[in-house]
Amino acid sequence: AGCGSSKTGTASAIAVDVQTKAKEIVTPYEGRPGAFPVTEKLSSPVPAGTRIAYIDNGNALVSLIFRLMQPAAAELGIDLYAVRAGTSASGVQAAFSTVVQQRPDAVINTAIDPALWDNQRRQLIAAKIPIVSLGTVAAASNGLVQPNGAAAFERQGRLQAAWLVANNDKSFEAVLYEHNELAYAAAVKKGFESELEELCPDCVVRVVQIPITEIGNKAPERIVSDLQAHPDTRGIVFQSSAAATGLPAKLKVAGLKDVQIVGANPLPTNLQYLKDKQSTVELGTDLNTLAWTAMDTAARLIVGQKLQENVDNGDALVHQFLRPEDITFDPTRGFSAYPDVADRFRALWNR
Amino acid sequence: MTSEQRRPLVRVDQLTKYFGNTCALDRVDLTVHAGEVLAVVGHNGSGKSTLVKLLAGFHTPDGGTIGLQGEAGPETELRFIHQDLGLVGSLSTVENLGLGSTSDGPPWRRLRKMAERLQADQLVAQFGVDFDVDALVQELSPAEQTIVAIARALRGWNEERDVVLVLDEPTAALHGAEVDRLMAVVRRVAERGAGVLFISHRLDEVLGVADTVVALRNGAVVGNLPCSETDYAGLVELVAGGVVEELQRRPAERGDVVLRVNALQGGVIRDFDVTVHAGEIVGVAGILGSGRDELCATIFGGRRRTRGTVRLRDNDLASGDLRQSIRRGAAFVPGDRHQHGAVMTMTATENLASVRVPGVEGRWRRVRKSHESREVAEWFAACGVVPARPEMQLSQFSGGNQQKVVLAKWLRTHPNLLLLEEPTQGVDVGAKAVIHQLIVRTANQGAAVLVASSEAKELAQLCDRVLVLADGVVVDEVAGQELTEARILHASVPA
Amino acid sequence: MPANSTGQTQRGWHGLLHSLAFHNISAVYIWVAMVVLFSLLVPETFPTVDTVRIVLADQALTAILAIGLVLPLAAGAFDLSIGSQLGLAAIVVAWMLSVQDLGLWISVLGTLAVGAAVGLINGLLIVKAKISSFITTLGMSSIILAGISWISHDAQILDLGADFQEIATHPIVGVPLSVYVMVVLAVCVWYVLDNTHLGRAVYATGGNAEAARLSGVRTGLVVVSCLVSCSLLASVAGILLSSSLATGDPTIGPGYMLPAFAAAFLGSTQFRNGRFNVLGTVVAVYVLATGVKGLQLAGAPVWIPELFNGVALLVAVAVNRRQGSARRARSARAATRVAAERAV
Amino acid sequence: MPANSTGQTQRGWHGLLHSLAFHNISAVYIWVAMVVLFSLLVPETFPTVDTVRIVLADQALTAILAIGLVLPLAAGAFDLSIGSQLGLAAIVVAWMLSVQDLGLWISVLGTLAVGAAVGLINGLLIVKAKISSFITTLGMSSIILAGISWISHDAQILDLGADFQEIATHPIVGVPLSVYVMVVLAVCVWYVLDNTHLGRAVYATGGNAEAARLSGVRTGLVVVSCLVSCSLLASVAGILLSSSLATGDPTIGPGYMLPAFAAAFLGSTQFRNGRFNVLGTVVAVYVLATGVKGLQLAGAPVWIPELFNGVALLVAVAVNRRQGSARRARSARAATRVAAERAV
Ligand SMILES: Nc1ncnc2c1ncn2[C@@H]1O[C@H](COP(=O)(O)OP(=O)(O)OP(=O)(O)O)[C@@H](O)[C@H]1O
Ligand SMILES: Nc1ncnc2c1ncn2[C@@H]1O[C@H](COP(=O)(O)OP(=O)(O)OP(=O)(O)O)[C@@H](O)[C@H]1O
Ligand SMILES: [Mg+2]
Ligand SMILES: [Mg+2]
């Protein structure tokens, strides 16, 4: 989906004021994280014996969040347990049916599309069991609480576009590798395209679909081919850096060096790549804070407290641009913008 | 033969084998000596193949022992030709000949492919035939496969080793001249000091080649005597447990023309015409490669015709449309039971009832199972299939009994035209007479019968006239007083 | 004839004993053991009507797919494309309903027609082009996945309408309609396979196609019809899936393939001495699902259900093999060998 | 013997012609056609050394896996667990290196040992417990996936060390080491299968296990060793994968299974008249990869490569079948009575 191939090859300079504007957008997130998402105190403690179910579909990110939530659950005295959903839709449904039966006090879902468990969602809502859903963009009418929803994803796209403009002198060609299968793809794409159009109308944007099933095996090959076929590409933007797993080795074989890689939602592997300077920048999302936020949100729903506006709007996500020098932490644990997240929440929870 | 020469090579002692409740072998004793051809005879399902498979280590015995140690010498080496030949169809002749031989060093040694091929050519040439040794064995005819199996058993044999050759019905698919050659080889092997254990239902072969005969009945030994002390009738009695009345067939009165084959061509067959009347039984003889083993399939429509017409009563049988052929009353018993005749993984009942006969189905096209089992029981009784357990998988029946089921499957359709290839292969003398009677009965009910057989004796007994094929054309027709075994054999061997 | 009737009774008695023998229905015994075990372990949630209802409903689609798979397997053909066919039907029906706005009935029938066409192509490639079923369906599944991606642009299709959702989810006695659909289809396939000549023809084709052909079975037709029926069942499952999800999802098909194969193969070791059969298959689906459900309710670690699936499959089959007499073991191996050969 | 030597020459000449016949190496012809086509379509990017290098490197793992798969397939056994075995090795080696800190060599050897053990279990279940290979490996793949999940806690494992990364990626003449590993393994497996008694025993076991056993082949041993070798090769692929990703990823194994099967089956239609063979398999891997690469470079829509994979598989095999049967029909007039058309 090239927006006018006539623009290719004729790179025009990016105006200084535009660059300044772009830098203004980017700078708050460079070297330091966005604002801490939760500020209001929890009104009353969670009743003893509270149980929260977590649906784990075996995806690396989903499992990581589960592990990050465990200390938060322990802090709140909540019994957090995982239910494994298989890779198929029936596995997901079976897992959610199990949860419906177990009648926990709340359910947390990460990234499993609500469309796949619509019946169970309705049953849960009918049973007045609150559902916190991370990384999904279902309509508000669905009754899901989505702390990082469409707003956060749109911001991701906008930030990635702005970073490219801020770090280039001339108009350039950029490619966004997206996964249409994930419902939030549209939000990222919208943010990215609109921001780039606004800042750099001369820039060329391609949006290329990477089938989600190819992540981990064929995706890097597809990306390398795409880059070979479009040798003018300067910026590579990922909707989700998972697709870049294995990419550095392939880029090396293909001799592709002169590209900027702007990832997002990095997995530990991507952080490792970044640390090894095999990637340019990652728009890190603080999953640790997100995990605590999710537990906090669930707790508020359980005790019946009103939610903060940013949580309700789906904007409660901490972003930070990570450069190689920012990876001073152990990539395995994921990026954590607020190492004192536990203390902060403990304070909010009166503990 | 002096007593020192009677060196025992294999000693079977009180050997017993059960399959579930079936006692396949019941305390069998026998000894194979060096230089001796020991024949094992017995009715179908008497345990002969089971004995062979126990010797081969394929089954483990439930009792008794098999002694392979000679007095002092090294362990006796056993070589086999199994009833279903034990060849790997998806490998070529060369590869089959080299299979499992331990004489070529460790398994990771490089193959000497050229030498192997030359040796294969030579081994095959010993039998006076010549076929492509690189072709897959499954593409060879049953007779050619038999030759491969024999060649493999004899490969690399010499007098220094104690060898016992075990042959389980090796001649079932062979024609007179080839049988003679095989018998000569067997004798030669024995004369050079090997032992031979030979199983056959062709009792005249047994008399011709064996030194000693062991008879089994229901898994137990009922006779063990030198060949010189018995004769054909004696053997028949040992096998069948009584006198078998061999078929004495008088030429029946001819009915209308049932089958008219015109200028048939296809495969090896170059030009074939025949007219068969109702009640007539016409035999087809010929050596390997004469087209004998393709004729019935070509007429039936199962093998491609390139030219010619086949007319059954008032209808033409089209090539390739087997359902039509069957509906018009044709029936075809193929020579290769395992590949073409039956579905071994299904039960005997299912095989027997596998040809659809109009009018036996209930409402909703339901198979009426009680009706069916009654019918199957009748056929089991008529053909003498043992054990009488039609719900057993066909592969668990002995070879001869499988053959009976395949025959019954087609006789059940009350055909107008009965096309038979080796109808009594592997069937014991008693059952053979029964089957011959069934064939005659079918003919007498107005069917035309065409029998292709490698057994001249059978043709002479059963047929009104015999067509002799060579190279795809009829070269001779034998009928009336001339119709004798010798005459057929004579005519079918090319000048 | 009194003799005859005694024989009949004896056979009946023997048959009953045989049918109840452990080796013949090992899965059922394992199932009973699991039900008892989990009822003791998680007495509040496991032995409830809810559990029964949920397990029934959750597995209905897998069961339909596995039942469909029994047909080509019995006829000696693999169908590795069932998973993607399910996905295709799920997407096509959603596309027709939502993008093309064709109305409920046209969409459903149209989807079934597409399914049948795919099955027909599979069948013709196997029978006419003489490509082995394994390769044919492997290749077809790639083509189908490409088709799904093309139709859906890899995105979910929403807005399928409330009527359509009723198809799978409308409850009767608390059990959703898809379960009844599954039962009806199971009975149909069982009747054809076990009680008609056509069923015999199918098994004969699977056992020895050449011999079947020479007995007047139109083996080509049999194989083609089995593949078409299988595709139809996969399409039904796909339609029900879209209906129960209220979404056409482009990624969900392939995940259904292995469970269906596991069920069909496990099922073949039950009831019918190594023959692929419908009853065994349905039982297998629910035995595996019951175990997984129980383990989930008992709060086992996430990887335990997957482990259970594998171990249960192996144990059920191994027990069946060990207890069965040697002859049966051999024949079953022969059957798989045939299948393997035909695959080549 | 002059007569004999003439025969020999004739056979050699005939053999050469036969080897070059279209039906026998259809994939090679398709490959050449594609190279020409794409060189014309995308002349700047397709016919370059870079492309060669990239395609070689990209497919080395799939090729290793497919070569491994040839062994059990030739012996008549399916191994549906290769994908998950690859995943297991990838995780185990990462776990040993990073979590257990066992050092490069111990980790690699340990992983190979684990792989061999899995293969041994597969083999023993097939041979001793007499479970069909299809079920065994289906069940095992569930168990292995559970194991992966247990070892890795479903998380990626990092910090594998720079040395380890070199194993797969160290370039020699611009081509990474994994390609050379693949070539060496291919030659080894080819030698064993095509030039030794052992290889013949493998094919015999695959063709007719009972007959092979009756002719003195220790079929059990053959099947077990084939499965063990296959597992070893899958483990090598897994180690190389972790090395080239610089990560142990718990989710990637299963995606490699179908491509390996497609390559092995397509390969079986090349060079050796329907027999599974190494050369054909490697060629098949690269033919499919070349097409996909060309299409991607030519900017085809996302779903086209998948479509291509399916269509190429079917076309290559169908062409082989058609031409093959035509040739066989023609040679029917030959003096030998090779049952030309296997009509009966
Ligand atoms: N695998 C098996 N399972 C069950 N029963 C078997 C099996 N093999 C053989 N039998 C039974 O053992 C008995 C002896 O069979 P066997 O094959 O030894 O007979 P045979 O003497 O070779 O007969 P034929 O002359 O017909 O070949 C038969 O009743 C047969 O049904
Ligand atoms: N001998 C047989 N054994 C088992 N099944 C058979 C046999 N012959 C045919 N069939 C199968 O039964 C199915 C139904 O056949 P059906 O009798 O309806 O065909 P038909 O052409 O209508 O025959 P007819 O006109 O004789 O009734 C077909 O698919 C066919 O393959
Ligand atoms: Mg026998
Ligand atoms: Mg016999």
Automatic annotation (TrEMBL), chain B:
CDD domains according to UniProt: ABC_Carb_Monos_I (cd03216), ABC_Carb_Monos_II (cd03215)
Sequence ranges assigned to domain ABC transporter in this UniProt record: 10-243, 252-495
Protein name (record): Sugar ABC transporter ATP-binding protein
One GO MF term: ATP binding
Keywords: ATP-binding, Nucleotide-binding, Repeat, Transport
Pfam families on file: ABC_tran
Top-level taxon of origin: Bacteria
Automatic annotation (TrEMBL), chains C, D:
One Pfam family linked to the record: BPD_transp_2
Top-level division of the source organism's lineage: Bacteria
Subcellular location: Cell membrane
Keyword annotations: Cell inner membrane, Cell membrane, Membrane, Transmembrane, Transmembrane helix, Transport
Transmembrane parts of this sequence: 21-42, 54-73, 104-127, 134-152, 172-193, 221-246, 252-269, 276-296, 302-320
Keyword Coiled coil on entry: no
Topology term for the membrane: Multi-pass membrane protein
Protein's recorded name: ABC transporter permease
